[in-house]
Specification:
The complex is a heterodimer of chains A (112) and B (115).
Chain A (H helix, E strand, L loop, with lengths): L4 E3 L2 E5 L4 E6 L4 E9 L5 E8 L4 E4 L2 E6 L4 E6 L8 E9 L5 E4 L3 E6 L1
Parallel strand pairs in A: 2-11
Antiparallel strand pairs in A: 1-3, 3-8, 4-5, 4-9, 6-7, 7-8, 9-10, 9-11
Chain B lengths: L3 E4 L2 E4 L5 E7 L5 E7 L5 E9 L2 E4 L6 E3 L9 E3 L8 E8 L10 E2 L3 E5 L1
The chains are: A mainly beta (112), B mainly beta (115).
Chain lengths: 112, 115
């Protein structure tokens, strides 16, 4: 079963707009990570946020974590066509020996 | 240029055949992982190794085998016992294993299909 569930499953926006996707999880976590996957390629790590952190930034990316609601969000500001990809959240699940468990992903299409 | 190299990029398996997927890293990472990705899905953990000469089963290990004789290499064998092997296989590595608050670095995958 999947620990993280992303919402929405798919998102289509115009270049320059912001994209927001959410991740919910079920159990206690050590950290939550966001990855990007371009079609037919491997995953690229974006941001890792620890369970005692609430917000992290990296360039145009902003990640928040609310452990009381067991949810996280990834915001991509001023999106570009090159941001078109699938985005996955993954949690290090304390109940599963901190193994990394991935959600099903959000497919983002940025139209030029 | 440090990274993870998976080969081959595409692989075809005949009925009853074992096939081996290669994964090599030059990042000096202790931990390595194998994941399976089905179309439109997230990743599922097959096997992982947190240190050389040691490995553990993941969530879907049946029909797969691994070895970790060298720090740099973590080959995955898909055996004939794996009845539905068609998938995209991803290898990853990290400085240290689960619980160390370290991200994973991924190769570009091997796509396995049945002939």
């Amino acid at each position: 079963s999947q620990q993280g569930e992303e919402d929405p499953q798919a998102l289509s926006i115009q270049e320059g707009e912001n994209a927001t996707m959410n991740c919910s999880y079920k159990t206690s976590i050590n950290n939550l990570q966001w990855y990007r996957q371009n079609s037919g390629r491997g995953l690229v790590h974006l941001i890792l946020i620890r369970s005692n952190e609430r917000e992290k930034h990296s360039g145009r990316l902003r990640v928040t974590l609310d452990t009381s609601k067991k949810s996280s969000s990834l915001l991509i500001t001023a999106s570009r066509a090159a941001d078109t990809a699938s985005y996955f959240c993954a949690t290090e699940d304390k109940a599963a020996g901190n193994k990394l468990t991935f959600g099903g992903g959000t497919r983002v299409l940025v139209k030029p | 240029d440090g990274g993870i190299t998976q080969s081959p990029k595409y692989l075809f398996r005949k009925e009853g055949q074992n096939v081996t997927l290669s994964c090599e890293q030059n990042l000096n990472h202790d931990a390595m992982y194998w994941y399976r990705q089905d179309p439109g899905q997230g990743l599922r953990l097959i096997y992982y190794s947190q240190i050389v000469n040691d490995f553990q089963k993941g969530d879907i290990a049946e029909g797969y085998s691994v070895s970790r004789e060298k720090k740099e290499s973590f080959p995955l064998t898909v055996t004939s016992a794996q009845k539905n092997p068609t998938a995209f296989y991803l290898c990853a590595s990290s400085i240290a294993g689960f619980g160390s608050n370290q991200p994973q670095h991924f190769g570009d995958g091997t796509r396995l299909s049945i002939l």
